[in-house]
Specification:
Blueprint: H1 20-25, E1 40-46, E2 52-58, H2 60-63, E3 68-73, H3 86-92, E4 103-104, E5 110-116, H4 119-128, E6 130-135, H5 142-145, E7 152-153, E8 169-177, E9 189-196, E10 199-204, H6 209-220, E11 227-230, H7 246-258, E12 262-265, H8 268-271, E13 281-289, E14 295-306, E15 329-337, H9 351-369, H10 373-380, H11 398-409, E16 421-423, E17 426-438, E18 444-451, E19 456-459, H12 469-481, E20 488-491, H13 508-532, E21 546-548, E22 552-555, E23 563-564, H14 565-572, E24 576-583, H15 588-591, E25 595-607, E26 613-623, H16 630-649, E27 682-685, H17 704-707, H18 709-721, E28 727-728, H19 732-737
Parallel strand pairs: 1-12, 8-28, 10-11, 14-15, 19-20, 26-27
Antiparallel strand pairs: 1-5, 2-4, 2-6, 3-5, 7-15, 8-13, 9-10, 9-12, 13-14, 16-17, 17-25, 18-19, 18-24, 21-22, 22-23, 25-26
Helix pairs in contact: 9-18, 12-13, 16-18
This protein binds dioxothiomolybdenum(VI) ion (MOS).
Dioxothiomolybdenum(VI) ion (MOS) binds near residues 242 and 345.
Length: about 750
């Protein structure tokens, strides 16, 4: 058997992560863990009032604490060129211009940073700083405020409202969701070091080192090449790492001021107020259908919170334009400024919220029509073309997701009438919902360095926030070259490596995968060039006909002999071979629309005496194009569904209307779903490559795993109990009182 007759290797072997050993042994370093000589520690002092101005700061006691080096505040901090005027502040993408003025926008806003030789000294001294405020009236009450703010058009209206106002079947209802917080395990942390007057080095917890580089370049008015950002290991993000937050800038400012490296790590309570959140929202849906179950039209209205200093709109009504073929569709939205920090993207941003309302309303309609919810959706889903642009979907298998999910959970055992299935004091119900996400892709670069021992290192600046990007890169490099996986190393999360977009919006693999494929081609081509000096047959060899192994290069042509790397190195006097390639979206975007999709099916039980809801089974079937690594992909769906269970049943960040404080500030008060709250998530994939999206065929999975999840649970609760709950989270009190 020759080299080329070997069975085609598949990518889908369930091996562990490339970074697994480094993570579990502690060898892998999160941003707060680097050893930096002469490091000192910054601890935040935050505002005790939700609105007003700082009249004075009392620093005397804090300054007397041994070890205190300096205290930064709005009157003594170094100049930030990026805060020079209002326009620059907006451009900076910093959001909060921290320590810029005496103005207070929300309770918990940083007003000073105490820098000391140890964390303990800084923490103690920070506790001694007090401030006098000219307090002003504040508002953190979304429910009371939103009715006073009028809706605005969100997207072009399709058809008219009048066309379907007389439809035979109409569902009209309001849906609300409380604020949710990302809270990745790893707290946001930054070590900032000015290695020269105009050269900054940052170890930063982030989802995008190049983004951090750009933001800091703007803030300090220095070229981005003068800023190195390192984020090699990231303990989760869910969106909170897609922006630069005030704590990172404070670390850089303090390092400048005290001329030493400074570390600022948020405490867990600070994670609840300083790094964004999924905003509290209100929605209203009016959905019409004719007697055959065809949707006649939809009106989708949405409002959510933002801060007083920045407009953030997560476009909740976007998904109304994506999934179903509405000929008549009107979408309206508005944001409601409150004395809170700015919200930000959180897993499935916007769509997750909008989908809960739409998929709940469709479920309500299915009972009115006495039609199976799966069949009703299939009748109305835009399977061929993107209903907004009219372009054909490149690939779209939401119908197959629905069929596979229904078969897996035995949907046929669902009772069409609520309340039929019981088990002692429990009522049992089946629910389902679908979700979608447009498949984006950014310009990304990857490098490959081949070393003398035949090992290669695949490199990119992209971070791996726990999604398995590094493992996928290894898998793709293996498939593209033939070099065994144990000879393929991965290096990522450093701005000195080939540039890449942030890992977010389910675009990570779709962006970097293509670059790795292109870099592998270049490596083969380069090696073939060297091989041709030894064997002329290699001269016109194309990358696709070349295979690499652990020891050398082979060409799929009769007269071309195998050439060892040892010979290549020797004959060409080489130490290493380096290639770098980019991959970017192109013309395919003019011709096609791209999407990922998923169907969630669940069985829940609801306790009739306590109102407790337990998810017995959760099946999620997703179309994310080609699955590069089964295990990492299943992890994505599984983690997202557990987040969806939290969203449906537990997660709720409340603001105290009298004090302006956030109520949840630890995991005792803010409940996330843990293993005890979730069954083993049953994750499946359609696994058909999209031939147009990129050279790999992967469409992204990070978001679709959560989008339909909460609606599926709420729909199952209705099927179990006949109680329609439209306010998330569905806590036991709401179940009992409904
Ligand atoms: Mo996510 S909200 O794409 O990190």
């Amino acid at each position: 058997m020759s080299f080329f007759d070997e069975e085609q290797v598949t990518l889908n072997t369930p091996e562990g992560r490339v970074e697994a050993v480094a993570k579990v042994t502690g060898r892998g370093k999160y941003s707060a863990e680097y050893t930096v000589p002469n490091l000192c520690y910054g601890v935040l002092v935050t505002s005790a009032v939700p609105a007003g101005t700082i009249k004075s700061l009392n620093l005397d006691q804090a300054k007397q604490v041994a070890g205190v080096i300096d205290i930064l505040h709005h009157q003594n901090k170094p100049v930030v060129p990026g805060f020079a005027d209002e326009a620059k502040i907006r451009e900076s993408r910093m959001g909060l211009p921290v320590l810029h003025t005496d103005k207070i926008y929300f309770k918990g806003q940083p007003i000073a940073l105490v820098v000391a030789g140890t964390l303990e000294e800084a923490t103690y001294a920070a506790s001694l700083v007090t401030a006098e405020y000219a307090a002003e009236s504040f508002n953190v009450d979304f429910v009371k405020t939103h009715p006073t703010i009028p809706l605005q058009e969100a997207g072009k209206e399709r058809g008219t409202l009048d066309a379907w106002s007389a439809s035979q079947h109409i569902v009209e209802a309001e849906y609300t969701i409380k604020e949710e917080v990302h809270n990745p395990m790893e707290m946001h942390a930054t070590i900032a070091e000015w290695v020269a007057d105009d050269k900054l080095k940052l170890y930063d917890k982030t989802q995008g080192v190049n983004n951090v580089q750009r933001v800091f370049a703007g803030l300090f008015g220095i070229p981005k090449e003068s800023i190195e950002v390192i984020s090699e290991f990231v303990g989760g993000g869910f969106g909170s790492g897609l922006r630069v937050w005030s704590s990172a800038l404070l670390a850089a400012l303090a390092a400048r001021q005290v001329k030493r490296p400074v570390k600022v790590m948020l405490t867990r309570p600070q994670m609840f107020s300083l790094v964004g959140y999924r905003p509290e929202s209100w929605q209203k849906i009016k959905l019409g259908a004719d007697s055959s179950g065809k949707f006649t039209g939809m009106l989708h209205q949405a409002k959510h919170t933002t801060s007083m200093y920045e407009n953030f709109n997560e476009n909740i009504t976007r998904i109304a334009r994506l999934v179903y073929d509405f000929r008549n569709l009107k979408t309206e939205s508005v944001i409601v400024p409150l004395n809170l920090g700015t919200p930000t993207w959180m897993r499935g941003p916007g769509d997750c919220t909008g989908d809960f309302a739409i998929e709940s309303a469709i479920d309500e309609l299915s009972y009115k029509l006495n039609e199976d919810p799966v069949a009703l959706r299939l009748k109305n889903i835009a399977l061929k073309n993107d209903p907004e642009s009219g372009k054909p979907w490149s690939t779209h298998f939401i119908d197959e997701c629905m069929a596979k999910g229904a078969a897996t959970i035995n949907w046929k055992n669902r009772k069409a009438t609520p309340g039929q299935l019981t088990d002692g004091d429990w009522k049992i119900g089946y629910g389902m919902a679908v979700g979608m996400w447009t498949s984006g892709r950014g310009t990304a670069s990857a490098g490959i360095r081949m070393n003398k021992d035949g090992t290669i290192t695949v490199q990119t600046a992209m971070t791996d926030i726990g999604t398995g990007t590094g493992t996928a890169m290894q898998n793709i490099a293996y498939e593209s070259t033939g070099i065994p996986k144990d000879k393929i190393n991965v290096e990522l999360g450093n701005s000195n490596l080939p540039a890449a977009p942030s890992q977010g919006g389910s675009t990570g693999l779709a962006s970097i995968g293509g670059a790795v494929v292109e870099a592998a081609k270049m490596l083969k081509q380069k090696l073939a060039g060297y091989a041709a000096l030894q064997n002329a047959n290699y001269k016109d060899a194309q990358a696709n006909d070349i295979l690499l192994s652990a020891t050398g290069i082979a060409y799929k042509q009769a007269n071309a002999q195998f050439i060892s790397y040892a010979d290549v190195w020797k004959n060409n006097k080489l130490d290493a071979i380096e290639v770098e390639a980019s991959s970017a979206p192109g013309e395919e975007r003019q011709k096609f629309a791209f999407c990922s999709s998923a169907a969630h099916y669940c069985i829940v039980r609801v306790h009739t005496k306590t109102g407790k809801v337990k998810v017995d089974r959760m099946v999620c079937v997703a179309d994310g194009g080609k699955i590069v690594n089964d295990k990492a992909a299943a992890n994505q769906l599984s983690g997202a569904a557990v987040g969806g269970i939290g969203m449906a049943l537990m997660e709720e960040q409340a603001a105290d209307k009298n004090l302006g404080s956030l109520v949840g500030n630890d995991f005792a008060g803010y409940h996330v779903a843990v293993n005890a709250d979730a069954p083993i998530i049953e994750a499946y994939f359609i696994n058909k490559p999209d031939p147009n999206i990129n050279p790999v065929g992967s469409k992204g999975l990070g978001e679709v795993g959560i989008i339909g999840c909460a609606a599926a649970i709420s729909n199952a609760i209705y099927n179990a109990t006949g109680k329609r709950l439209r306010d998330l989270p569905i806590t036991p009190d709401k179940v009992l009182l409904a």
